[in-house]
């Protein structure tokens, strides 16, 4: 199976919810409120994280309630198709009943509408793609009803003891699974039927034909009983106040305690951390005496924020060291991860070159595991990425530089003819950067995003990972405005990397591409300093303008084909003023 195919999710919303009466007398169970919103919307948010572009929801009991809840038939811009069942068809019957809506679809995700979970769906998609089965079930190692049996190969050998084949372990079915379109050929139109006996029949006919993946990360709740509904409502209490650092109040405290398996009586303290210019918030969690972890809360925008957990899992899988994710709540946008401490590559800036060189070499070796990953093998459905580098993104970066740095910060209007010459030059620069075959890159590979633990580098802030030129990452690190290099130091690291990973280029061409990519990266960085300093009130970023601009002048001067950019950078330096080689910022 090509993992890129799954774009549609079928959410089972037609059940009667008898066990939750009287709450469900006039409301379908998936529409019961949790923290002020319908329960089903948590499933939808969860599915959006893996690229689902359309929801199909079957209805039966109180169908008008769905129309009231979703009057425009959309959730967060994703279209919802409702398919009514005058007669309740059960799970297999419901699947067959939407077959006509699946033209062009090769596989879909099926998701029970009465569960609330944040388990990593990317694991299910990857397993379904890798196992090549018609059906792949998402399971948990334990749960209230562990009645799915697995054989020694990890495939389903029995369900609900129908076949009398106990296997080697019993697991809990999560109510989430991936199915191939051809599976529907096994079903009969209009027949009231569960998928369970169909799965059992497949196993009886061909053992090992039903795939599975055990996913114990994250939380999972089946909201089938009144006590389960009450529990999830207590867990999703909104209203945490930023001034409360005890970890007791609201949804933040509940999530932290759940993630770290702490009791209400266990002392917890949240201390704010500062991390760069993003809109993500970080806290260090102190608990259990001298134990600690880090809590990250992210916003829905920019979209790359929501990619952190999936990318972390992928990077770990290919041997790139990143912080371990302890718990991720994609609905409330919380992540608890391991605490790496406060020592990063930037903190070593005053150490001897001998010490720094060792750490920088290790960082470059580590990032090459990313650059060297075969693009054709990347699981793009399981691990969604931001827009790859191409003409549009390169243009956005140079416009960002001119808008927020050249015009807003430096106060320069370079004139129409000079602007046209600059645009032509930078367009050609983008074309040359695209000549380097696209590979996975970090995109913000600078000293403050490389932690040092036990003398070894660990990458952070990688949610902007995408396909592009690896020279962009080299430029981000070796022309880092936060750290000063001599030219001999920079060249020593570059030459060392070239001797290990020369990309089939001779040295002069390798160095030229490095200088050009560095200039592109520095335009983006200076644009960000102007934007954050002037628009977001982050004056601390203006302190890095001096080094950043000096680096841009150096890179564009050493490059052979960037005279217009070099001249503009020098004009910016003149506009901002100089004294003993340092920019004087009066903003």
Outline the structure in words.
The chain has 587 residues and is of the alpha+beta class. Strands 1, 4, 5, 6, 7, 9, 10, 11, 12 and 13 form a ten-stranded mixed sheet that branches. Strands 15-16-17-19-18 form a five-stranded antiparallel sheet, sandwiched between helices. It is built from 16 helices and 25 strands. α10 (391-407) packs across α14 (507-535). The chain is 36% helix and 19% strand. It has three domains: 3-222, Alpha-Beta Complex (Spore Coat Polysaccharide Biosynthesis Protein SpsA, Chain A), CATH 3.90.550; 240-338, Phosphorylase Kinase, domain 1 (2-Layer Sandwich); 346-583, Aminoglycoside phosphotransferase (APH), C-terminal lobe (Aminoglycoside 3'-phosphotransferase, Chain: A, domain 2, Alpha-Beta Complex), CATH 3.90.1200.10. The radius of gyration is 27 Å and the shape is elongated.
Query: Helix/strand-derived class?
Result: alpha+beta
Q: Globular, elongated, flat, extended or rod-shaped: what is the shape?
A: elongated
Q: Largest sheet at a glance?
A: 10 strands, mixed
What's the CATH C level of the largest domain? Alpha Beta
- What proportion of the residues form beta strands (DSSP E)? 15-25%
Number of helices: 16
Number of strands: 25
Uncertain ranges: 237-249, 578-587
Task: Summarize the amount of helix as a percent range.
Answer: 25-40%
The name of the CATH topology of the largest domain is: Aminoglycoside 3'-phosphotransferase, Chain: A, domain 2
Proper CATH architecture of the largest domain: Alpha-Beta Complex
Return Rg in Å: 27 Å
CATH superfamily of the largest domain: Aminoglycoside phosphotransferase (APH), C-terminal lobe
Total individual domains: 3
Mean pLDDT: 87
C-alpha end-to-end distance: 56 Å
